[in-house]
What we know:
By secondary structure, the protein is α/β, with parallel strands linked by helices. It has two domains: about 1-130, NAD(P)-binding Rossmann-like Domain (Rossmann fold), CATH 3.40.50.720; about 135-225, Regulator of K+ conductance, C-terminal domain (Alpha-Beta Plaits, 2-Layer Sandwich), CATH 3.30.70. It has helices spanning about 10-20, 35-40, 55-60, 75-90, 100-110, 125-130, 160-165, 165-170, 220-225; strands at about 1-5, 25-30, 45-50, 65-70, 95, 115, 135-140, 145-150, 175-185, 190-200, 210-215. It is globular.
Amino acid sequence: MKYIVVGLGNFGASLAKKLTEQGNEVIGIDTDMNRVENYKEKISHTICMDATDEFTVSGLPLKDTDMVVIAIGENKGANVMATALFKNFQVKRLISRAIEPLHEKVLYAIGVDEIVHPEEESAERWAKKLCLKGVVDSFELGDDFSIVEVNLPPKYDGKTIKEIGVRENYGLLVLTTISNREEKSLIGKSRNINKVEGVASPNNILNKNDILVVYGSNKDIKRFLKG
């Protein structure tokens, strides 16, 4: 996949490096030439430019880019301006970093697809979420193994864990499942809630909206999600 990461501070640079290491094409952007030079050997491409300048941004390969991540953290004004600019160019998917609650509300008003909170979430976790379609969340156990929450691939709807052969075919252990259910309040208003179903049984029947919590190697998790 092709990514643009705007802002090569600690989080942005770490994310861009992780995405590059996983075989993606990444353009890292920053206004600081020293940062651009420091990471030119670790990120696919690095560019020193102002991501709030419409003319400059228009020269980027936006139509060929799968995702843009605005990782600017030290300057909220530049973060918002860059986010709005990339949104106006109608990029395929736009993710932006939020520093505080009001900042987050502004970003959602602009129309970002997702918010990053680097103070709470690691670049490694975000790299996995962005690279593996279907990953909801993850917990790293060293470089090669993880516990991850993944959306059930649609083709397994209505099947049991045993029928899928998660362990036999993919080498993964299903720890538990999380179901999404609709619940009505006392006044009749509906809301969706996630319910952890306890220790997984081989005979558990899975539904299309279920989330599986699985343990295994990163390469086997990737293979399972690809089906």
